[in-house]
Amino acid sequence: MTDLALAIEKVKKLGINIDRNGRMLCPFHNDHNPSAYIYYNRYHEQVEFHCFGCGKSYSFEHFLELIDGESKKEDTKSYDFNFIADRLNKNFLAILSGAGEEKEKRLAQSGLKYLSERGFGLEEIETFKIGFCLREDLLSVKEFNNNSWCYDENRLAFLVFPIRNREGKVVSFQFEDFLNRGKLEVTKLNLTGRKRSLAYFGEYSPNKPYFITEAIYDALSLLKTRDIFTFGVVSLLGSPSEEQIKELIELAKTNDVILALDNDESGRKMEEKLLKELVLINPYIRAVRLPDGIKDLNELLLREGQLGIEDAILFTKKVTPFGNIRERVPQILEKFRMAKENAFPIPEQLSYLREFFKDGLLPGLYGVAGIPGVGKTTWLNILCDELAKIGYKSIYFLTEEPEYRLLLRTIKREGLKNFEELISQDWIENRITFELTPEYTAETLEGIISGIIEREGKAIFIMDSLHALQMNNSLDTREKTILKTELLAHISRDLLIPVFFTSFIPKSLYKEKPNIGAFKEAGEIEYLIDVGIVLWRDLEEKKDDKIPVSLHIVKNRFGKTGEARLVFETLACSIREPEKGETLR
Q1: Average pLDDT estimate for 253-272
Q2: Burial class (CB within 10 angstroms; exposed 0-12, middle 13-18, buried 19+) of 565
Q3: 3-state secondary structure at position 137
Q4: pLDDT at residue number 444
Q5: Which of 3, 422, 529, 555 shows its CA 20 to 30 Å from the CA of 71?
Q6: In sequence order, what are the beta bridge partners of 459?
Q7: How many contiguous H segments (helices) and E segments (strands) does the chain have?
Q8: Which of 163, 169, 99, 103 lies closest to 131 in space, CA to CA?
């Protein structure tokens, strides 16, 4: 239902005759022919009242105040949330006991049946003050009736869960449209315009550990064991908001924290996000590890009963990168396993890299440095082409030259005649390229790359080059370089992908032997990269269409360092290993 439709519905409830287009008799003058309208002002982006007879214009809220008077502002009342929670709970219990009209009894029994299917019953209703209400009941409460879903006639009734803050005060509610679960996309509903607090279950204590769950039913599943274990539980009610993360940080300062999130990709990403925030406050955070095939704690309760929940509590795992080796070996091996699963294979055309990267191109930050004209862009373009041919995608971000020049390298190396022949190659759909424009800054990159990967699938990311990438701040060049490198490192860690960037080598180092110092004068970024690659050639050697170059791995967290001798064919835009017996001038 639109904002305008909601406004018209409110006017009708005031007893004013208004048609579906918002036309009505003006209540502010002696109007005989309808000359007033409730309408949506798209310029002001709000619903407004205007009368073409008397000329009065008001915002819709001011109109309601004028028409309804001070004692009856919207034909609704405002109540204390603690009172509402208590009343809805008592009404639920009374209806289940036989009071109320037949419609209420039938729908309340359906609510009880739904709860029982999730593993809960009258004990939880009484203990946690779970309420029940019909949709029309919400329209008489000011804090509730500004939610559009209150006017959706497909929703008949709700289970109501009071949301209590750390002090035990009811600060909001979560409404569950249990009748439409599996039918409508959204069935867990929260109050519009209110900050989403953490939902605390029970009295807060600084002397007990706290489990963090995504959903209320997961929290209630843990609390089935409250007579056996002593702990607290808070629920996020979905993905954590910024306000909730701040609350969790305060909780982690005083209490041990155990993450009990869903056993799926979304839950794992959420755990990783929360760990990054909380580990700075509390270095000893643990997590529940659910059995394979079980999505969350509530499903564990339904499948394995309370004993399954007890086991989950007893066998939590430490997930922060601290502690002795004995307790951390499983975590270390799991981290390495995930890295290997997300590694990209070394294409055959670049097989010389396998000596240095035996597990493939693992997620991490790869710096590629070289003097101008040594073939950095050509080499990275070859990597992307060859990965594309074996079914792996790449995202190539150019900051110094247009896309067509990059792809001309591919056309030449592949022996194609033009772009038409290039797009006829099946594998080219695995290449994704885009150029630097003002909206693409270092700060926005992660969101852009994340969005592309979500749509296209896993891909390596190439930033060519680091120094031309823009930033939205006034730092000096060196500070910007360090910060940009940090942001690229975050992309590799957060998205679990290999990230390559190109960097220049200062002229002062042109005659030195390739080493990690190639990255130092670019802003001391050698500490931030996982792999340092330097492409090198002898500047005094006569330039030809075939130039001897060398690739030096000067830093490698994933394997050994070393050197590979190569040939840069400038006309063919190819960098390859020398053929057996091949001599170069």
Answers
A1: 93
A2: exposed
A3: helix
A4: 87
A5: 3
A6: 393
A7: 16, 23
A8: 163
Q: What is the pTM of this model?
A: 0.55
Strand partners, 432: 395
Chain centroid to Cα 103, Å, comes to 42
Q: Which of 492, 430, 424 is nearest to 463 (CA)?
A: 492
Most confident segment among 10-24, 346-360, 483-497? 346-360
CA angle 161, 164, 167 (to 5 degrees): 165
Q: Which DSSP string corresponds to 192-261?
A: TTS----EEES---TTS-EEEESSHHHHHHHGGGTTT---EEEE-SSSPPHHHHHHHHHHHHHS-EEEE-
Structure-token pair, residue 517? 């110092």
User: Which residue do the tokens 């030259």 mark?
Assistant: 401
Query: Is residue 171 a contact partner of residue 165, using CB atoms and an 8 Å limit?
Result: yes
Q: Which residues contact 543 (CB under 8 A, 6 or more apart)?
A: none
Q: For 145-195, write each residue's pLDDT tens digit.
A: 778 888 899 999 999 999 999 999 999 999 999 999 999 989 999 887 778
- CATH fold label, 78-194: DNA primase DNAg catalytic core, N-terminal domain (3.90.980)
CA distance 558 to 393: 22
The predicted pLDDT at position 71 comes to 35
pLDDT (0 to 100) of residue 508? 81
Three-state secondary structure readout of 78-121: CCCHHHHHHHHHHHHHHHHCCCCCHHHHHHHHHHHHHHHHCCCC
Write down the CATH number for the domain with range 3-68: 3.90.580.10
* pLDDT tens per residue, range 118-152: 999 999 999 999 999 999 888 877 778 778 888 89
For the chain, domain boundaries: 3-68, 78-194, 348-576
Structure tokens at 499: 């990230």
Same fold across 3-68 and 78-194: no
Separation between Cα atoms, residue 475 and residue 151, nearest integer Å: 52
What does the pLDDT average to over 386-408? 94
- The candidate with the shortest Cα–Cα distance to 394, out of 427, 368, 369, 364, is 427
Q: Which of 456, 340, 331, 309 is nearest to 393 (CA)?
A: 456
Residue 516 CA: distances (Å) to CA of 376, 380, 522, 553, 557: 17, 20, 11, 9, 13
Chain position carrying tokens 């090198």? 536
3-state secondary structure string, 504-568? ECCHHHCCCCCCHHHCCCCCCHHHCCCEEEEEECCCCCCCCCEEEEEEEEEEECCCCCEEEEEEE
Cα dist. 537→40, 371, 414, 542 in Å? 68, 8, 24, 11
Residue 284: both structure tokens together: 């000893």
Q: Tell whether omega for the bond before 465 is within 30 degrees of 0, i.e. cis.
A: yes
Would you call 415 exposed, middle or buried from its count of C-beta atoms within 10 A (0-12, 13-18, 19+)? Answer: exposed
Q: How far apart are CA 556 and CA 562, in angstroms?
A: 9
Q: Which CA distances in Å does 247 have to 166, 172, 341, 517?
A: 9, 16, 34, 43
Tell me how far CA of residue 23 lies from CA of 7, 26, 445, in angstroms.
12, 9, 49
The fold of the 348-576 domain, in CATH, is Rossmann fold (3.40.50)
